[in-house]
Amino acid sequence: MAEHDERGLSQLQNAARRIIGMLQHALELPSQNDGAQVQRGQTASGEQAPPGTRRQIGRRTESPPPAVSATSSTSRSSVDENMARAFPGVFKKRTTNVKLRKRAVKSKHIQFFLMDKVMAHTPKTVEEMVLLQAGLGRRTIDVPEDANHSEISALLTESFPKMAALDGAWLLYKAAGGSGQRKLNVVSPEAEGYSGAQLATGYTGKSCYYIMPIQGSLDTSPLPFTAEEFSRMPKAKCNNCQIPVPVQLLSLHVKDCQQTVNVSDSDCEVANDQTELCPICEVPYPVNSLPLHASSCGEESERPLSSHLDPGEEPSTSYAATMVQSVLTNASPLRPGIEAWKSIKDPQEALRFFLEQLKQEGESQPSLYLNLDATDDEQRDGSLIRFYKEDREKRQWTAPFHCMIKGDAAIGVGVARHILSLAISRLKHGFNLNFGNAAETLLFEGEPEHLVPAASPVLLESDLFRMAGRILGHSVINGGPTLNGLSRAVVSALMNGQNEMTKSKLCLNDCPDMEQRETISLLLKEEWTEEESSRITRLCLDWYCTVPTKHTNKLLIFQQLLSHAVLGRVTAQIKQLRKGIKDTGIWPIIEHRPDVVPLLFPTDKDVQLTPQLILQAIMWPQPGSDSEDDDMPQETLTLLSEFFRRFVQRASPKSLKMLMRFWTGWEVPPRCLKLEVVQSRGPRHLPTSATCSERLRIPNHYRRFEELEDDLAVCIQSVETGFGLV
Hints:
With 726 residues, this protein is an alpha/beta fold. The protein folds into seven domains: 2-99, no CATH class; 107-230, Roll (Ubiquitin-like (UB roll)), CATH 3.10.20; 235-263; 275-303 and 323-356, no CATH class; 365-501 and 570-600, Hect, E3 ligase catalytic domain fold (Alpha-Beta Complex), CATH 3.90.1750.10; 507-566, no CATH class; 611-720, Hect, E3 ligase catalytic fold, CATH 3.30.2410. The protein contains 29 helices and 17 strands. Strands 2-1-5-3-4 form a five-stranded mixed sheet. It has a four-stranded mixed sheet with strand order 14-15-17-16. A hairpin with a 4-residue loop joins strand 16 (688-690) and strand 17 (695-699). Helix 1 packs antiparallel against helix 4 (70-86). The longest helix has 27 residues, at 2-28. The protein is elongated and about 130 Å long.
């Protein structure tokens, strides 16, 4: 029955189409009135034809097709409309195609502001100008309403070329209402990312979308005016230098250009800068403190650095940058003004000024004494913990520090260096004490360069992280090693708290628990197995986080879980560590000089010792000096110097660090390392060191490199229990 109905409907449609075709064909033919005029003998020009030619003329007039008139076209359109109303199922498609017109795609002018890092509030006016000079800042972009996420990303990258480095890892934020600095809230993307319709709907004309990196940060160094980022900006010439400058930056450029002209003017007597270079060390100092510094500059070492090198050997450009602790230890006495360190441009010099001021305040305080047992590791570590857990005033931590080791005859500065190095080592690698049913107590756990505080309530309740902060601050005050290898996110949380900028520095390697790290990494996958989905659900429920679904933004949940795994569980530990640092009095420079933070919390790579660094600091033995190698033949001095140079060049970074601890007491190389060749007392006379004066003495009985290499390896292995002579 159904097939019969369909066949009947098909026949009806075909019949209707034939009728319409006949009607259209009839409309295209000439009318009957026109045919009658031709039959009555009229030619095309309107003249009367002869009787004998009437039929021929009629045939010629019928052969060419007549033009379709406007009336016939109108009639055909009317018929189409009537048939469409009568048979909508048959003529609907044709009528729709006739009336369909292509709609123009709408676009909207939307303002975007590219930030260099994640920030909780809108930038200040000064910060906006800094970002603008770096090719970031504000741009107005035409966004089509039908644009998808990929097209929007391409438009943004075209306007902000530096966004290419983000590789799609960015989110949009909007500011709350009001004036001044306002809080920024994230604009959650849809399941397929941002769309043009979403951005157009949320844009009011006065607002702005802030683009922020999810991880890392963008370079904010000023770009040249010929950079691609400024190509679309209107430019105007500066009257001073005649350089085309973007109009938005012209006011800043004119000020800098005018200052340059004024400073270079020979008639100008007073410079705008409040610091001047020391004529001896060529380091900028405040004008008020320069006379005091210059009076004693150059007295901190026995001879210039260039005399420590072999003839023809050039000093490394990175040598001064890596000698922060050395500069602090060997600094010349001076008394800078109150908070003069704030105006010094060089962060190393600012830190040196600040610590010198702290030391001068502690000169009137009673000395600190620490005695350790060299024979018992557990008692030695217990003595360290008790010493740094004792409450003291801030000024007492800057007092002179003296140490003794029971079972070792060594005394002096070298012993204090050894103990400070030991304390920092225990922070990184653990104390030999049983806390929480463990043979070794780790305060920081995780991979190198990604160390985070241990999430242990026992350690927290024992105030061991406050003790760790005191150890770090005390070591810095005395020019000792720093705590390197911490996660960059932990360092940022220590300085700024857990804000969006801190969370942007997180990475998967910061998560110390491998099982949790693997579960969190599953959120970066497109699809999950049933077992993987169960693991993610359990972790989210344990940490009170939203369980992800197909329509959930997995990237946001990934950030939430990673932030809790690395920072959320150790918030109290980080606060306690900050409190311990404040106890020692070094927090003001950390708070006011962010450029000093990398010096106090460097990466492992920043403090890694290299053979070149050590060789450049060595004062090589020379005949005719006042040391014991005065009577040594030149051939012996040259041979042993070559042996020692080869040993340093072949040593691993770990062996070089142990060599420095054997030579000086800690792994911080000073500006001058003294190497001496002494008279041998027999074949078993091993190399010795005087850590206080940074002297390494090598007996002269070595004739083969392998013999010296073996003995030096034995010596540097003894640094855990003894460190040479003082």
